[in-house]
Specification:
61 residues; mainly alpha; single chain; 0% strand; 2 helices; elongated
């Protein structure tokens, strides 16, 4: 394998790893924001849970 190919492959791996880290961070923050919203607006959270449950019950595989 040529040095240029090796450098490109490691650069691509680093970019992919960084993208995965940013995505994981985003998903953690999103879950935290949803949990906060559920605590602040319990009635809306309960209604959303019931709607989601109804959607799952009526979903056809």
């Amino acid at each position: 394998m040529e040095p240029a190919e090796r450098a490109e492959r490691t650069e691509r791996a680093e970019r992919d790893a960084e993208r995965r880290r940013r995505r994981a961070q985003f998903l953690r923050e999103l879950a935290e924001a949803r949990a906060l919203r559920d605590r602040v607006q319990p009635r809306r959270a309960k209604a959303a849970r019931l709607r989601r449950a109804m959607r799952m019950r009526t979903f056809r595989w």
